[in-house]
Amino acid sequence: MKTVSAGGEAVLEARATAAPAPASGVALRRLWRFKWGAVAVFVMLLVVGSAVLAPWLAPYSPITVDIQHRLGPPAWMDGGTRAHVLGTDQIGRDLLSRVIYGGRVSLVIGTVAVLISSTIGVLLGLAAGYFAGRVDWTIMTVINVMLTFPFVLLALAVIAVLGPSLINMIIVLGVADWPLYARVIRAETLTIREREFVLAGRALGMSHLRIVFRQILPNLVSVIVVIATLQVARVIILESFLSFLGLGVQPPTPAWGNMLGEGRVYMLNSWWIATFPGLAIFVTTLAINLMGNALRDWLDPHMKV
Amino acid sequence: MKGYALRQLFQLAVVVVGISMLVFAILHVIGDPVLLLLPQNAGKEEYERYHKLLGLDKPVYVQYWKFASRALQGDFGKSWYTDTPAFRLVIERMPPTLYLTTAGLVAALAIALPLGVLAALKRHSFLDNACTMLAVAGQAMPIFWLGIMLIIVFAVRLKTLPASGYGTWQHFLMPAFTLGAFLAPITMRLVRSGVIEIMNMDYIRTARAKGFAERRVVVKHAFRNACIPVITVLGLQFGQLLGGAIVTETVFAWPGVATLVVDSIRNQDFPVVQCAVILLALIIVAVNFLVDMVVGLIDPRIRVG
Question: Which residue among A90, A195, B69, B80 is the one 20 to 30 A from B146 at the CA level?
Fold first, then answer.
């Protein structure tokens, strides 16, 4: 079974870019992308900064209940107060503070899960591409099996067994997401393996380990960085979704996903509870994606990611 | 063609076996079915009894064999919650999921085809840039949040569409659009790059040289050929589409397999989760196989290579 997904699209895209086009147009387009990349970096600095500095920035504690002021609308609406800029939730917690703190969970899970999955994926991808033959067949079969599952379904199946918690979430997302890296790294390794410097290394009697890690891996760093960046956004969305269903980060820990899930119950009268955490997820993932795209253009515009 | 079909069929068989092993492993290696089944305060003897009752004292391969041979006969055990066969529960919920998936695919194509073709023909124009921006935003969008925002606007505020449920065509609109928005960005980019690539081909120049109207060149010559990679990748994206349907169902309380899975996870009803995961994976594998066959028929180069 062939598995063409994000990769297939990018190949087409790369080929399309390679086709003759007005040079100034392409340059402008790249510049335009870089501009957005800069904006994205700025937004991410804000998001990460506010998550790190949450205890100093947030006006209230994210878990302090204040029943008297429950379901308060945002400041600019009738009945809103300056004390709670984004309003309060169903038990009177300050929404702004919870959105600020909620970023911590998403960013930590996103980063750690991506570190785990990229490590597994890169190692297996290198092994499959370098050793070829039976190793390759085995690893590719596993990859095909795992890619058959929608990521969501696999995560749900594992959560069903492990039970919902922050640590389990990191494990699930980290372990379920490696095939993507492995597939790309394998393909790249297959081509690099035939290059002169690898052949020279082999002729000089270098060990397999040294060839793989000293000669092949350094050539793959930019690909890995780009995929990993883009995957952080995907993992954050998936984490939010699982928390939204109540199968991820458990309340009262503020996470964008579980806030959205709680807010859904109150959307009839209090739209803001579900709106702002979702907006936070959207802005963050958008910024990460733009950053990833700019990074790809900067490192190698023809990269097949 | 026969050899190609057999090769694909063999791979299909390998993937199916792999899927059954993976699902089996999730239950038996990561989790302990006895712990899932028994209440938390159950004693040690009770545990031992169930351990034996479920056949968990036998070697793993014996257990897997039993599991696989039963599954082949459509026997996935009984629901621990309702005591009805898991297979029947899942099959009953399958049609709504498949309808939603189809509706989402149609919505995605309705958005992506015209925009993708226009963007390709007016490359680097304002429209093209706007489409690219829309695609980037769409890829970052958490669709469960999009769904909730749609509900707030169209069901709560404007009261024009039902917020959730299933039955009439109105019920389809918001879920289909939500799922469509999930798949449209990647489809649009594919169509765009496909058309761009083909517009640079020699036969397009020939068609123009013959004096055909531009509209005819685009519709008859370019678009049709651009469809092949789009069909391939869309077919292989079917798993992603189904994953999106899972997310969409939970937002709109759609009575499909995904809501069943989520409810079953909450009820710790593992046989149902297991059965649903396997059946969904089988559908994906089957669709991928069909797509491979169709593409092989359309484009002889693929089945040889």
Answer: A90
